[in-house]
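User: Hi! I have a protein structure encoded as tokens and I'd like to know what sequence might fold into it. I'm fairly new to this, so please keep things simple.
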């Protein structure tokens, strides 16, 4: 016979573990660079931009578009790497809680 109360308890446990794992993502930080290190972007595992560092040698460059492109590239690289690390961390922290369902994307849980 189907145990509805047991199933609800299991779902609450899974939700709590997912929330705990998501909270830990703020501790993951990733720094990526562009322009051979002229621009660096640091983001956390929750995909929040924490810091931008721009080398002073390009601060006086008249080509603003180049500087903008370098910033965008650094931020995008950091975001992509942080997303990959966050997904790995979520898989590690929730292993055994959820069934192995092909196509299940942990990104749908707030990543």
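Assistant: Happy to help. Inverse folding works backwards from shape to sequence: for each of the 111 positions I chose a residue that suits the local structure. Here it is:
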């Amino acid at each position: 016979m189907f145990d509805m109360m047991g199933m609800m308890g299991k779902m609450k446990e899974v939700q709590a573990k997912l929330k705990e794992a998501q909270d830990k993502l703020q501790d993951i930080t990733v720094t990526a660079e562009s322009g051979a290190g002229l621009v660096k972007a640091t983001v956390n595992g929750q995909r929040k931009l924490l810091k931008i560092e721009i080398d002073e040698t390009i601060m006086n460059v008249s080509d603003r578009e180049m500087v903008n492109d370098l910033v965008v590239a650094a931020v995008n690289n950091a975001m992509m790497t942080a997303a990959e690390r966050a997904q790995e961390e979520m898989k590690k922290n929730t292993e055994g809680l959820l069934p192995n369902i092909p196509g299940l994307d942990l990104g749908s849980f707030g990543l």
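A useful reference point when you look it over: The CA atoms of residues 21 and 93 lie 6 Å apart. Feel free to ask if any position seems puzzling.
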